[in-house]
Amino acid sequence: ENECINRRKETLIKKAYELGEFDGIDVALFIRKHGQYTTYKSKDHTSWPPSMAEIQTAYPLPKNILPQDIEKHSSKNNRK
């Protein structure tokens, strides 16, 4: 299980890196496992990533996605 999780984590970080290579896209990724954080950020600035308070007051308003949103979307696609 640990090996599988570590591979998935490495893949997720690689995908975050690849997404951050596109013009105009900045990426911040936080993974917490058993209280230990792994972070990735596409910009090496102290102001990046913004705080949750900054994100919630940004315009246009942020698109907040939760696990149930993904599950709902997946179940719709499986019915087709």
Describe what you observe in this structure.
With 80 residues, the chain is an alpha+beta fold. Helix content is 46%, strand content 15%. The chain contains three helices and two strands, in the order H-E-E-H-H. The chain has helices at 2-20, 52-56, 67-79, and strands spanning 28-33, 36-41. It has a two-stranded antiparallel ribbon. The longest helix is centred in the N-terminal third of the chain and has 19 residues, at 2-20. The protein is globular, with a radius of gyration of 15 Å.
- Mean pLDDT metric: 91
Number of strands: 2
Which H/E pattern describes the elements? HEEHH
Largest sheet, spatial ordering of strands: 1-2
Label the structural class: alpha+beta
Q: Please tally the helical runs, counting DSSP H or I stretches of 4 or more residues.
A: 3
* Poorly predicted residue ranges: none
C-alpha geometry: globular
Q: Which percent range describes the beta-strand content?
A: 15-25%
Q: Helix coverage percent of residues?
A: 40-55%
Instruction: Evaluate the radius of gyration.
Output: 15 Å
Largest sheet: 2 strands, antiparallel
Alpha-carbon distance between the two ends: 32 Å
